[in-house]
């Protein structure tokens, strides 16, 4: 699946074999994180387009237009703002 980062004008490929956070890091894009488990919410980003799911509901509070990079599963191409 394709991940388009709006504010950096970058498109990446993501296959859900690792977290979205790890995919960003492997491509030289640093983003804040703490727990990597959905508890703290520090890896929260704005979802502009697309769909994600969570294997287990995250404990971090999320707005309707936010996702957690550390634990979401990408269901379709995404547009995010980090």
UniProtKB/TrEMBL annotation:
Domain 2Fe-2S ferredoxin-type, which positions? 1-82
Q: What InterPro entries does the annotation carry?
A: 2Fe-2S_ferredoxin-like_sf (IPR036010), 2Fe-2S_ferredoxin-type (IPR001041), 2Fe2S_fd_BS (IPR006058), Beta-grasp_dom_sf (IPR012675)
- Which PROSITE patterns did the record assign? 2FE2S_FER_1, 2FE2S_FER_2
- Leader peptide range in chain numbering: none
Gene Ontology terms for molecular function: 2 iron, 2 sulfur cluster binding
UniProt-listed Pfam families: Fer2
Checking NCBIfam families in the record gives: PRK10713.1 (NF007985)
This protein is called: (2Fe-2S)-binding protein
């Amino acid at each position: 699946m394709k991940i388009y980062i709006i504010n950096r004008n970058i498109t990446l490929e993501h296959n859900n074999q690792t977290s979205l956070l790890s995919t960003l890091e492997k491509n030289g894009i640093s983003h804040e994180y703490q727990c990597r488990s959905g508890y703290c919410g520090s890896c929260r980003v704005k979802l502009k387009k697309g769909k994600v799911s969570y294997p287990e509901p995250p404990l971090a509070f999320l707005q309707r237009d936010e996702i957690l990079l550390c634990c979401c599963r990408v269901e379709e191409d995404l547009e995010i703002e980090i």
